[in-house]
Design brief:
The complex is a heterodimer. Chain A contains eleven helices and ten strands. By secondary structure, chain A is of the alpha+beta class. Chain A has two domains: 103 residues, no CATH class; 348 residues, no CATH class. In chain A, the strands form four sheets. Chain A has a four-stranded antiparallel beta sheet with strand order 5-6-7-8. Chain B has one domain: f41 fragment of flagellin, N-terminal domain (Up-down Bundle), CATH 1.20.1330. In chain B, helix 1 packs antiparallel against helix 7 and helix 2 packs antiparallel against helix 3. The chains are: A alpha+beta, B mainly alpha. Chains A and B meet through helix 2, helix 3, helix 9, helix 10 and helix 11 of A and helix 2 and strand 3 of B.
């Protein structure tokens, strides 16, 4: 007999391990809806056997560790694809807003007002003597100017809005950087001297990584102590072990790539680079910066070009004409001094604003019926004066709108596509790491039976001991 | 489905430019064209009105000159007339003269028909002095097609021969200063007003000459004026045919414009309007997809092991 006391110990070990299996199952079930949770499994192993003479007796079971079921590669893959999702989403938001600025399918926009502007000039050409007609021309010019202002301000508003989102995202990224550094430390501490993983902490860290990669394009590497090094791709490290570098924003001047005056640039602490924004390609930050500088910046610049050439060309002709009062050399628009900001600053010249009779219609003085200047102006509508003689005002504006629309359309498609990819990957990850209630319920029953049986073992051992103790009576 | 709903509500295929960028930019083009064409049609109607008025005036002038010629023929020979009868018809000629001045200073609204660009100045004084200029007012009746909507007084009231090539002058002087690379050749055909006459004869002076000839019983003067009157009548006939060919040109342009409009309207509808059959079949499809996915979800949510362990 190996001793009834040993049977107690065996039963006890079985009882303990069943209980820890049950509690892990309970933990799994309670975290069925927790984001990023990986199901855990108790690893059990048999205890080293006792040797008694020639016979080897097993002495029970023990818990070797609790492992989380997870596919590292898949988790990385999800993070990797998520960065595109973040990028496309932010672009989509900005592009939809821009689209609504330029959308004139059902109302008046710049395209229609421009056509109207030239038409009013044609009407004035039929009736150059009429002061009322002049006032109408000026009125339609005011509308056109108003729309130039509306569009350029709305574009600027979206860009400002993007700056706000940029700041919010940077703040969120910094919180994640904090959390990651903290988790690195905790994981290192809790895994010290044990073989099992700090499963829940690692899950939390994976979630933080995924959230961070939605914001920016990051690369991740781990070391043998289980610490992660997270770097902003192409820029520098954000987290290394428990050390961290934070991102921050600063207002800056406009630049060649379309960044508007007074908008934000992204910088990294402890990094000499003045602006890392240009190197952030993906993630929400990448999407925001691309939308602001490349997409909206281009649209705004092209609008400025339009306003500048428009005002300059009309002035050029208008200056040659004679007004009702016989004056010549008068500007129609306030001559813009630079392309930048031309759309926002477009306005009537003070002469024309004060008196509609200062609209020059005639090519020679004292000829109220002479409409030739007016005709030359209306003729501009069909002349290729934009882009070095390549396109008309209409072409230029329509191309701007069409470019935006094409980008929006393409982005919508890739966004949808990317959504599918991430969804699919999430599903696969879920099928491996996710908690299945069916399985856990089965485990619950199984471990309960094991627990009952272990209790039975102890009970039997107890009865055996009692039998032995009663022998003396 | 939401998108389809919106399309159904607006009855448009395009809700935003991103739905079909190419079609959208075409739509913008067509719309601008339509707006401009509408204006061309208005322009054409206006020019036509002016030209018809001018033609009416010319027809009155024809009557005046023909009557004057009749008188001149009647009074030029001693056989059918004498000093008394000449004195009598001199009255009529002076009435014709007044009528002539009236026609010469005819207006549409505020604008004088025959004063060139100086539309607010009466072109002829009572003694036949011309106060206007030789401006021909261009009106754009089709893209890049300009037509003069007026006939400057001297062309009507002075017979003259122009040196060939002086009339049809190409682009306006304004465009020339635009420098190289500008679209010089395509500038409006705005004629300059400095054709050099070789020989002129003023209608007013001729008619007055006739009157004086009649009053002074000077048959040679009367006979002289016959030639001049003939030339003037010829001039009027030429002008009338010119004016009516301009009107025909306008009608032609109007016809073309309306054809373009029609074609554009068709294209626009094709590009922009929702195709009902397609829209409804899409809606029906989306609905059935949604139904079946809901049903599938209902089945999927159902059983878990927990249901069986109670």
């Amino acid at each position: 007999m190996a001793g009834s006391v040993n049977i107690f110990n065996t039963g006890k070990s079985a009882l303990f391990s069943s209980r820890s299996a049950l509690s892990t199952t309970g933990h799994n079930i309670s975290n069925v809806n927790t984001e990023g949770y990986s199901r855990q499994r108790v690893e059990q192993e048999s205890v080293a056997a006792d040797r008694l003479g020639n016979v080897v007796y097993g002495t029970g079971v023990r818990v070797a560790g609790i492992q989380r079921i997870n596919d590292e590669y898949l988790t990385r893959q999800v993070s990797h694809e998520t960065k595109f999702l973040g990028q496309y989403r932010e672009k989509d938001v900005a592009l939809m807003q821009a689209d609504s600025i330029f959308n004139e399918l059902n109302n008046e926009g710049l395209n229609r007002l421009m056509a109207k502007f030239f038409n009013e000039f044609r009407k004035l050409g039929n009736d150059p003597e009429s002061e009322a007609m002049r006032a109408t021309v000026r009125e339609s010019t005011d509308q056109l100017i108003g729309d130039f202002h509306r569009i350029s301000r709305s574009l600027r508003d979206i860009q400002k809005n993007i700056d706000v989102r940029l700041e919010t995202n940077i703040r969120e990224a910094n919180e994640l950087v904090d959390r990651l550094a903290h988790l690195n430390e905790e994981i290192k501490r809790s895994e010290l001297n044990t073989h099992s993983q700090a499963a829940d902490l690692r899950d939390k860290r994976d979630v933080a990584i995924k959230k961070l990669s939605e914001i920016a394009d990051i690369s991740v590497a781990s070391n043998e102590r289980g610490e992660l090094t997270v770097s902003l791709s192409g820029v520098g490290p954000l987290v290394s072990g428990s050390l961290k570098n934070k991102l921050y924003v600063e207002t800056a001047k406009s630049n060649e790539e379309g960044r508007p005056e007074g908008s934000l640039v992204v910088r990294l602490e402890h990094n000499n680079s003045p602006d890392v924004g240009g190197r952030i390609k993906n993630g929400k930050l990448g999407g925001l910066l691309e939308s602001r500088d490349q997409i909206l910046g281009t649209a705004a610049r092209r609008l400025d070009e339009l306003a500048f050439t428009f005002a300059s060309k009309i002035n050029e002709i208008h200056r040659k004409g004679y007004t009702v009062g016989g004056d010549t050399g008068i500007d129609y628009f306030e001559q813009p001094d630079s392309i930048e900001g031309a759309a926002e600053r477009l306005s009537l010249s003070s002469d024309v604003r004060e008196d509609a009779n200062n609209i020059a219609t005639a090519l020679m003085p004292d000829a109220p019926g002479d409409n030739r200047v007016v005709l030359l102006i209306s003729k501009l509508q069909h002349q290729r004066v934009m882009g070095g003689g390549k396109s008309t005002f209409d072409d230029h504006y329509n191309a701007t709108v069409a470019d935006l629309a094409t980008i929006a359309q393409k982005n919508k498609q890739v966004l949808e596509h990317q959504n599918h990819i991430v969804e699919q990957l999430e599903k696969i990850r879920q099928s491996i790491a996710g908690v299945s209630l069916d399985e856990e319920t089965m485990n619950l029953v199984q471990f309960q039976q094991a627990f009952n049986a272990s209790a039975k073992v102890i009970k039997v051992a107890d009865e055996m001991l009692e039998t032995v103790l009663n022998l003396r009576r | 489905m939401e998108e389809l709903q919106l399309k159904n509500a607006t009855q448009k295929r395009l809700v935003s430019a991103a739905d079909d960028p190419a079609a959208h930019s075409k739509i913008m083009d067509i719309r601008t064209q339509a707006t401009v064409n509408k204006q061309f049609e208005d322009n054409a109607a206006l020019a036509k009105n002016r030209l018809v008025m001018t033609d009416n005036a010319l027809s009155e002038l024809y009557d005046i000159f023909t009557r004057a010629k009749e008188i001149a023929i009647g009074q030029s020979s001693e056989a059918s007339a004498n000093a008394d009868s000449r004195l009598g018809v001199a009255q009529e000629v002076s009435a014709l003269y007044k009528q002539l001045v009236g026609v010469a200073n005819r207006r549409i609204g505020e604008q004088y028909l025959f004063s060139g660009f100086k539309t607010l100045t009466a072109p002829y004084t009572a003694d036949g002095g011309y106060m206007g200029d030789r401006g021909e007012i261009p009106v754009e009746i089709q893209k890049d097609v300009y037509i003069s909507a007026n006939v400057p007084g001297p062309m009507v009231f002075e017979t003259k021969r122009y040196l060939p090539g002086d009339q049809a002058r190409s682009p306006a002087a304004v465009d020339k200063t635009e420098g190289p690379g500008s679209s010089e050749g395509k500038a409006p055909r705005i004629e300059r007003q400095m054709a050099r006459p070789v020989e002129t004869a003023n209608v007013f002076h001729e008619l007055d000459g006739l009157r004086v000839g009649l009053l002074t019983n000077d048959t040679s003067t009367i006979r002289d004026s016959l030639d001049k009157l003939d030339e003037m009548i010829k001039n009027i006939i030429t002008l009338r045919s010119k004016v009516s060919s301009r009107v025909a040109g306008i009608d032609n342009a109007l016809g073309q414009t309306s054809k373009i409009d029609q074609a554009n309207a068709e294209l626009l509808s094709q590009l922009e309007d929702a195709d009902y059959v397609e829209l409804w079949s899409n809606l029906a499809r989306e609905e059935s997809v949604m139904r079946s996915s809901l049903q599938a979800a209902q089945k999927l949510i159902q059983p878990t092991l927990l249901d069986f362990l109670r």
